[in-house]
């Protein structure tokens, strides 16, 4: 018998707002073609692998000491990258780092949400936003996207005015639907919001749209831009998320972060990955070209495809998406069932993986739509 196996979750003294909830659960299956978690399909180059290994080897000699609590060198590198990428002059003190942008979002809700406070999102969007709200005991307010998954700005302004949320989540490009929010619309939403607006830009490098970082100087007490190295930087396993905001926002997060949250290995490996960014980001252009090829082919096959600025595509209209998801899997292609009527989501992979995905899509087009 398993020690303690006689007790179930329901019998534990769990907080009421966590009862009946499900954990984040994208399947991790060992199949030939994995296109379900919006990772970058390009593996690191030998030069990057060597640089990570050398860098981690060097810091291993200091592993008996705690890491730099404030990760200053890494934040300086990221500030330099993000300034070049966005055209906004960001400094080290504008940037904060954590173990994935999920931890960034959690720290933001620890500081600006919490018991008695609310966070609003526009669904369907990233499924972790409400889960992190639950974990921090922040009341989640689910506002809706339009039928075509765009943000209806008048409706959104109305919901923000009506419910005055302490935190607003805006995901741009939005996961799982793919489109970005133009900065003009973002500014109107920020104007209406009484508190913090988190712009989740996990997929920004795949988009041509300007970054919401442009709005930080105008709205220093409101705009926080969340980013990650998991997608464009092909560093999902390395776990490095970051944000750009006014320095005071970083001061707020220092109050809730756990000391030494970012290991010496993570800091060293992330800095190595950043040194190879020219090569890694060249792969992003290939993914964007492949995305456009997949979108065009799905359209030819009669699928309804949502426009995408990201490294994934939402498509349908399936009569029974769960059954069609299984058919892809039976042919060795793992995609995502995001639980949206008639839709499935595919991550753009390597050319050969996309070909495998399109071959199944050709087979299903006449029968499953
Ligand atoms: N935001 C969005 C919109 C995402 O899709 C994801 C990853 N699926 C994340 C944040 C979190 O990624 P990570 O914790 O790996 O940075």
From TrEMBL:
Its cofactor is pyridoxal 5'-phosphate. The modification N6-(pyridoxal phosphate)lysine is found at residue 231. Pathway: Amino-acid biosynthesis; L-histidine biosynthesis; L-histidine from 5-phospho-alpha-D-ribose 1-diphosphate: step 7/9. Its EC number is 2.6.1.9. Gene3D superfamilies: Aspartate Aminotransferase, domain 1 (3.90.1150.10), Type I PLP-dependent aspartate aminotransferase-like (Major domain) (3.40.640.10). It is an enzyme of class 2 (transferase). InterPro entries: Aminotrans_II_pyridoxalP_BS, Aminotransferase_I/II_large, HisP_aminotrans, PyrdxlP-dep_Trfase, PyrdxlP-dep_Trfase_major, PyrdxlP-dep_Trfase_small. Keywords: Amino-acid biosynthesis, Aminotransferase, Histidine biosynthesis, Pyridoxal phosphate, Transferase. It catalyses: L-histidinol phosphate + 2-oxoglutarate = 3-(imidazol-4-yl)-2-oxopropyl phosphate + L-glutamate. Pfam families: Aminotran_1_2. The keyword Ribonucleoprotein does not apply. Residues 33-354 form the Aminotransferase class I/classII large domain. Belongs to the class-II pyridoxal-phosphate-dependent aminotransferase family. Histidinol-phosphate aminotransferase subfamily. NCBIfam families: hisC, PRK03317.1. HAMAP family: HisC_aminotrans_2. Homodimer. This is Histidinol-phosphate aminotransferase.
